[in-house]
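Usage

Read records sequentially. Each one opens with the input sequence:
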Amino acid sequence: MTKPEAFNVLRTTDSGELIVVADYAANGRPAANFHDLAKLLRTEHTIWETAPVPWGQESGLTGQDQAERWLRGIRDSGLKVRALMGFCGGGIYASVMADRIAEWQGEHPELLLFDPGFAERRMLTEHIESFYRRLAKAFTEDQLADAKERLAEADAGASNALELAGRLTPLCQEVLKSAIVRAGWSEQAAGNTADLVNGYLHWLGAAVDLDPRPGWARASVLNSSNPDIGLHIIPEPERSEMFGEAHFFDVVHADLLKTPEVARTADELLARPVVTAGSAQK
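and closes with the structure output:
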């Protein structure tokens, strides 16, 4: 099989079954990723990770557009989808794809969510603000005031999250890139980081309008101990209605995907019999 264009291949086997993991794949982030988890899993199936839209091609793509790009590659592979997994916002895309795959496959893939949560518009501006804080020493007082003003203007002028992501593109390429260079990075490294941030904002903004709840009702959640992430911020009565089952681990969010106990639980869930599409969710 040729390498799929819209995925990173984490494992290749001859089982004929596929596990798709959804995340915004980025090198260098502090939190563990699905590459770490794949090394710990004992399941004997091929594992693909959703790859971001190539830089410069993300403008205007809705959440459905993003999902369709991956779904085409999955269907064209001819592989039976055993499971989908999603980390944080990736759980939104994993859920939407799981429902679509069940339509043509006739059975629901297993759905595993790691610290899931909804995408919200405010997260886009908060992400930029986090870079302002980290790069504070690279701004003069006037530069920082101007950067904050440009962020506020972009937010005020956008009617939805995807439009906001588009309005933040010049801010990424001009304000953030320049600050990163002033912080001592090369032009190339600064440009790559700005592109990465821009791609992430479009991926996140596009997810805001997707509704993952139908798929989440069948999902198994593996949640970290961080009190402000995942199921911890959802009231218990809503939690039990929103998700199929929950597993909690005494491990911080950043280490969730590299913890052996989490991998063992994931393997147990992946080994369960598949559910025929149209059968009871719980």
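Summary fields computed downstream for this record:
- Residues 161-182 form the longest helix (22 residues).
- Residues 7-119+210-276 form a domain with the Rossmann fold fold (CATH 3.40.50.1820).
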